[in-house]
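User: Let's play a game. I give you a shape written as tokens, and you guess the letters that built it. Ready? Here's round one.
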């Protein structure tokens, strides 16, 4: 019998039963029933590229259709002191969780202290951002002469360059802009698509107060200036009000001056015209007067959310390091159960036992206490989604194809069921980890977002379907399933 041929796995399962009360009375593979239901399908010899083909073709059943990117809408809901204080409190909560589960986050605590001082700040911080050679430095020089210490200006690295080094500079520029109260996005003509996408992200994505500045208008004839300005204003609707797109000449080109004297002599020289920035200066003055408090609050809120995200990222890293060994433990328990009991009829409740325990332990890591009933519900929901998305059949076919390439391992009775069980359990565990990481630090276990959970399953499946990974995973699984039990040592006479 199988139990006699593989006593080490039956002993493993019994040991786990004693330590994991949820498994008592129903140790089985959570997804074994689904695998067995699809087992009647014929297995096609696909080869390495065939595996990818099967996964790709099957994946089209559930991949979202690609759509043309839509113009983002601006969130015009007001930022209040209360909403900012709530964001700061959430950041503090995430930092406290990190302090409990990992080392003391001294630097994050210091940033939190500084955030609370932002309410008292009076000066406005302005970032000047744009491509190379659009006149950012000249704009800052002209505005500093107009506003003195009322506004603080910061020039960011140039955007939209092609090298990897400059790409890092672009990332830095956007991050610096996000830390200021107001952004002057500078262009010297009509917007490119790349510029428009960056503007859309600043305004709609980051809720960054922005003015679009058409600089070097003096390099266009009068008719062209009006056309370009109108085109920019139309392009930016409804992201920006028309008055938030302005045309200037921060450093006009030199002009030739000719003077005719009374004696008939002519003198010629070149003069540098004064900066033509009145429209921008007036708009900045109005914003500084009417929107100062709102802008400071909005910046503080963005910084609080960024601090919370940083703390959460560190916390997720710590929790994931604790979760992965648990997932690996249960994937091989599931493999052993399916390999030792490859029968066509399993109790439906028993098949959810392993994954219910997995849900419970992962939930504990992410500070989400699941009851037995909740854990079973989550495990059943995960299983239903995997069947609906076609992942069970795709995974089983892929595993069987790899196994079939090796006649020795393929003839093993429950090898396909065992390795497929491990693979699906791994997908379920990793998907739960990804789902928990995307939620707040604490979530409501009774209100799982099924759409988001489904999307997470698809994402994790894509990440774990590479041929090389599957081959290594199957090899590791077979070695575990077919390894010989340790031989008892004879006592020395």
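Assistant: Ready! My guess for every position:
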């Amino acid at each position: 019998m199988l139990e006699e041929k593989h006593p080490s796995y039956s002993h493993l399962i019994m040991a786990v039963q004693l330590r994991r009360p949820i498994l008592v009375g129903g140790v089985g593979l959570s997804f074994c029933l689904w695998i067995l239901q699809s087992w009647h399908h014929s297995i096609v010899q696909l080869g390495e590229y065939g595996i990818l083909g099967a996964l790709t073709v099957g994946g089209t059943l559930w991949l979202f259709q690609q759509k043309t990117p839509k113009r983002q809408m601006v969130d015009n809901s007001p930022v209040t002191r209360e909403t900012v204080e709530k964001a700061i409190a959430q950041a503090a909560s995430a930092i406290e969780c990190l302090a409990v589960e990992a080392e003391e986050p001294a630097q994050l605590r210091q940033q939190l202290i500084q955030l609370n001082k932002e309410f008292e700040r009076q000066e406005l911080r302005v970032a000047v951002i744009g491509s190379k050679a659009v006149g950012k430095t000249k704009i800052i020089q002209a505005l500093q002469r107009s506003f003195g210490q009322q506004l603080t200006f910061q020039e960011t690295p140039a955007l939209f360059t092609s090298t990897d080094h400059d790409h890092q500079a672009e990332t830095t520029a956007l991050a610096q802009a996000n830390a200021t109260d107001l952004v002057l996005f500078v262009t010297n003509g009509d917007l490119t698509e790349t510029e428009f996408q960056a503007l859309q992200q600043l305004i709609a994505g980051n809720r960054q107060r922005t003015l679009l500045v058409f600089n070097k208008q003096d390099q266009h004839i009068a008719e062209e200036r009006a056309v370009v300005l109108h085109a920019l204003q139309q392009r930016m609707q409804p992201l920006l009000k028309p008055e938030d797109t302005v045309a200037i000449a921060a450093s006009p080109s030199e002009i030739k001056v000719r003077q005719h004297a009374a004696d008939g002599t002519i003198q010629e020289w070149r003069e540098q015209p004064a900066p033509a920035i009145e429209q921008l200066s007036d708009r900045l003055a109005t914003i500084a007067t009417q929107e100062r408090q709102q802008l400071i609050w909005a910046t503080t809120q963005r910084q609080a959310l960024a601090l919370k995200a940083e703390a959460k990222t560190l916390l997720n890293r710590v929790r994931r390091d604790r979760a992965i060994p648990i997932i690996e433990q249960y994937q091989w328990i599931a493999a052993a159960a399916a390999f030792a009991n490859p029968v066509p009829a399993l109790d439906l409740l028993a098949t959810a036992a392993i994954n219910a325990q997995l849900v419970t332990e992962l939930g504990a890591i992410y500070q989400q206490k699941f009851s037995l009933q909740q854990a079973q519900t989550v495990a059943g929901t995960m299983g239903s989604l995997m069947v609906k998305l076609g992942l069970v059949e795709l995974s089983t076919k892929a595993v069987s194809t790899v196994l079939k390439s090796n006649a020795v391992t393929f003839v093993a009775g429950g090898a396909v069921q065992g390795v497929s069980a491990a693979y699906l359990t791994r997908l379920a565990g990793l998907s739960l980890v990804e789902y928990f990481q995307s939620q707040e630090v604490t979530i409501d276990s009774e209100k799982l977002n099924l759409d988001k959970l489904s999307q997470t399953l698809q994402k994790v499946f894509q990440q774990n379907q590479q041929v090389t990974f599957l081959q290594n995973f199957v090899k590791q699984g077979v070695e575990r399933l077919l390894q010989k039990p340790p031989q008892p040592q004879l006592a020395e006479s």
